[in-house]
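In this section we turn from sequence analysis to structure. A common task in structural bioinformatics is to predict how a protein folds when a small molecule is present, because the ligand can shape the pocket around it. The inputs are simple: the amino acid sequence and a SMILES string for the ligand, here OQQ. Study the lines below before reading on.
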Amino acid sequence: MKLMAVTYEPIKTCKQTGARLGKVHTPHGTIETPAFMPVGTQATVKTMSPEELKTMDAQIILSNTYHLFLRPGHELIKKAGGLHRFMNWDRPILTDSGGFQVFSLSEMRKISEDGVQFKSHLNGDTLFLSPEKAMEIQNALGSDIMMAFDECPPYPAEHEYAKKSLERTTRWAERCLRSHARPNDQGLFAIVQGGMFEDLRRQSAAELTSMDFPGYAIGGLSVGEPKPLMYEVLDYTVPLLPANKPRYLMGVGSPDALIEGAIRGVDMFDCVLPTRIARNGTCMTSQGRLVVRNAKYMEDFGPLDPNCDCYTCRNYSRAYIRHLIKADETFGIRLTTYHNLHFLLDLMRKVRQAIREDRLGDFRDEFFEQYGMKEN
Ligand SMILES: CNc1nc2c(CCc3ccc(C(F)(F)F)cc3)c3[nH]c(N)nc(=O)c3cc2[nH]1
């Protein structure tokens, strides 16, 4: 694969909102933005085959330094020819740097200037991640977009802690840039931190954009803060990022948050929701969330979502899917996962079309009216 820089191609800005249509070019192909990126934590988007992901037009998937470092190990994946070869996915892959997962998954962590020492959540081994180690792992995986090693402060965090933390994240980003094995294709994104403080977000963005990364992520959000607060932080943080680079809002999100984030100029999103809630039979539909295992669907022979044309909705009924979930049949989870991923990918297709037609604000109002965030 010809190695090339990760670049952003702006296409147009929505006249009604701050949303923008664009393309992110990577060594393994192009991503149309705004884009939703399915999460594939352990080198698989749970229960989905690469062919099924292509059928629903997933243009990029995520995977994780932390999980793959612990199991099966990045050296094994390197021997297999890299993560694309190992999992038979020939489109773009973005990997997170592992810092966030250390804090959300492992115990006994010690954070220092050098990096983070922690216990494996699998076997209790004492392990260490640093900017250099995170880059070694991501280069071994061969991902197209790598994330700098950062600290995501807990919520809420004191101003002083958030300031100290962002300054260390900046120093870590510099160390990542220096230890990046593939400077020519520059697939390294920095992550803006600063908690919920405008002055700190400005400081973090200024320090990181002065190092001219090919892309920028907004970290430290979707960590338990109220949504209005997340939108407020986005309102003043997104404009600090260069207009000619991709903008990735980490860990977001639910359908309403994807639309609100796109309106504020975010290009890339990730969320574990579609695959996670599918496992307990919860589905995203145009009329809001539907818990298909509820008894009221026992004799409901209609599709999960009457407005959906995905494989699941064209071929199977709520009653059948409810039966599979209740019987703990894996096919049931495959059907709800397929539908949920298709729902979010299709939502972003509609968002991109609304930007083309300069009507994303109207689309938001229509969607919220229908979706209504109600459970039915
Ligand atoms: C859920 N909220 C949230 N998720 C956040 C994440 C994880 C994003 C991620 C990436 C890859 C995967 C993979 F499983 F597919 F691999 C899964 C999740 C963050 N990641 C970093 N580095 N900094 C942050 O400041 C940050 C803030 C985050 N808020």
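Residues 84 and 90 are 6 Å apart (CA to CA). As an exercise, try to locate the residues that line the OQQ site and compare them with your own expectations.
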